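Re: Re: ligand-bound prediction request (bumping)

Still looking for help on this. To restate: I need the protein modeled with zinc ion bound, output as structure tokens. Inputs repeated here so nobody has to scroll up.
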Amino acid sequence: MKDKKKNERKQIDFHMHSLLSDGQNSVEELVQLAYENNMRAIAITDHNHISICEKRIIGNESDFLEILPACEFSTSYWVPEQEENIEVHVIGLWLESVDPNDFEDIFSVCKLGKLEYIQEILKILDGLNVHVSLDEVLEEQRKTGHLGRHQICDVLIRKGYADNVDQAMDRFVGNWSPYYLNPLRFIKYKKLDEVVQKIRATHGIPILCHCYGYSLDENEIETLVKTFAKTSDGVGGIEVFYENYLDDPSRMHFLKKMAYRYRLFYSVASDRHCVDQHFATGGDYAYYLKMKEALAKNNK
Ligand SMILES: [Zn+2]
Ligand SMILES: [Zn+2]
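Reply:
Sorry for the wait, this slipped through. Here it is.
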């Protein structure tokens, strides 16, 4: 029985959020839950915040879980086809340790302009007869320590304007909502290239997140992937096994094709925020070993 359990421990998940950004579990709870769910390696990727700086291992010698230092960065990417900057998310994953001080300049700009951005969204909602006050959003910020669109969603749900986060995003504030407001009009995130280069300079692996989460068609996604791959210099990854895309064969096919064409590693992501969400099911430990091997060669 014990051996069976050991064999099962091979899932990885390199994208999830804790209370230190907009998730609902603490870091310790996530670690414990991942261990209980037989995960083999995870990364807690809070937004613009490094929640774990040193690799941790829990369990025993033959049956353990690795927790890797990581972060989900908000970056600014110029879409040549649209002649506009959009917000694109990139994960930095470190296999041993990272010093958050190296990223202070990148993190500090993320907070500037956030309040103005939120206020502008609330104005738009008000025009739709959807009434959310800044105080209500700031109340959510006090609870979570985070200020962003997710906190607006929490208020929208509480006040009955939406049943859940997905619905609140789709209807009102998400990238595919008709009322979407580009945050880059208010927040000057660092450029994608700059963030990717910094991750590489600190011996991390940059991973391009949820490619279908931006307002881009597949041709535009390919341009993004190409730009990203060039900057990551042979040690980049892409979220192929993003939990929400697993049931869509055409998306999976396209993401695998992108990974192959631009020589990017497969990454695995639940993007877990809520207590009732499960960990990633799509990937396996072999993908992590591939990244590890390439990084070791590259850093020599
Ligand atoms: Zn994201
Ligand atoms: Zn995320």
